[in-house]
Amino acid sequence: MINIIEQKIQENIQYEVLDIVNESNQHSGPATDSHFKVTIVSSEFEGVGLVKRHQRVYQILSEQLAGPIHALAIHAYTPEQWKLKAQAPSSPNCMGGSKED
User: Fold this and answer.
1) Bridging pattern class, strands 71-77 and 17-22
2) Neighbours of 97 (CB within 10 A)
3) Global pTM value
4) For 14, which of 6, 55, 57, 66 is 20 to 30 Å away at the CA?
């Protein structure tokens, strides 16, 4: 799945940094390749709001999001933002789509 995500992003966004992490080990149910974190740094995000950046990645990966991907954390930065941050935040553990009491 990582290769598919990488290929689809490569075909649609010119980026300086692309990091894809399989976080499926944080899934609360049976082990699957279904939880991913994507960190992408692109000058194409200059002047584009965070929601629009995420929507673009969601659109690129729409087929995977309709099926095998259960959770996708997106961290989309401009090169200038990345210089200040240089690291995406950690993702929380999956609670299986339900709340714990």
Assistant:
1) unpaired
2) 9
3) 0.81
4) 66
CATH (one of 3.30.300.90, 3.40.50.2300, 3.40.980.10, 3.40.50.300) for 2-85 = 3.30.300.90
Mind listing the pLDDT tens digit of every residue in the chain (101 residues)? 999 999 999 999 999 999 999 988 776 666 578 889 999 999 999 999 999 999 999 999 999 999 888 889 999 999 999 988 766 666 655 555 543 43
What is the amino acid identity at position 63? E
Name the burial class of residue 40, with classes exposed (0-12), middle (13-18) and buried (19+) by CB atoms within 10 angstroms of its CB: buried
Q: What is the spatial distance between Cα 2 and Cα 45, in angstroms, rounded to a whole number? A: 22
Closest of 69, 76, 77 to residue 94, by C-alpha = 69
Return d(Cα 8, Cα 82) in angstroms, integer: 22
What's the burial of 26, exposed, middle or buried (CB within 10 Å: 0-12/13-18/19+)?
middle
